[in-house]
Specification:
about 80 residues, about 50% strand, about 0% helix, four-stranded antiparallel β-sheet, mainly beta, 9 strands, OB fold (Dihydrolipoamide Acetyltransferase, E2P)
Length: about 80
């Protein structure tokens, strides 16, 4: 049996899982000027570790620049689920 639940739109801050350089990844889909990501799609790679989209949504704002060195736990994007 499948049970569907309604997830409320929310803004989440995705953080670096480890120290390293941030490399942002292109989404599979674009919607106008929004970078739209599917659940578990890779948003960025930090120090060889993937940062994945928690749910369907889009990046509201990148909080660090592509190629920037960060420490573990640094917020890298503000992400809006839809």
């Amino acid at each position: 049996m499948n049970v569907a639940t309604q997830i409320q739109p929310q803004t989440v801050f995705l953080t670096a899982p480890t120290a390293g350089r941030v490399a942002f990844c292109a989404p599979r889909a674009l919607c106008g000027e929004l970078e739209v990501f599917a659940p578990a799609e890779t948003i960025a790679v930090v120090g060889g570790v993937r940062v994945e989209a928690p749910d369907h949504g889009f990046i509201l704002r990148a909080l660090v620049a592509d190629g920037e060195q960060v420490t573990a736990g640094t917020a890298i994007v503000a992400y809006r689920t839809v």
